[in-house]
Fold this sequence. Notes:
Helices cover 58% and strands 0% of the residues. It is mainly alpha-helical and 83 residues long.
Amino acid sequence: HLYTPLLDRWAGRLGVPAADRADLIQEVFLTLLRAAPRFRAAPGASFRGWLYTVFVNKWTDLCRKRVPVPLAADGSSFPAAVD
Length: 83
């Protein structure tokens, strides 16, 4: 309840489509759940700063995974690379 509105606001500022926001926020919370027990803020650093970094990195990862696979000019797939 505390961080969902904040993450949603950050998503809006980054231009995350509404259809992707819930998935992105869920990924951030999963990372938070796994990393929170070990989290130690560096002097001068903040939890929100770390959370924002995680948020942006998760969004970048999701965007990277959606890069379309190129097709040959005739619409067929490129042949597999041979070692």
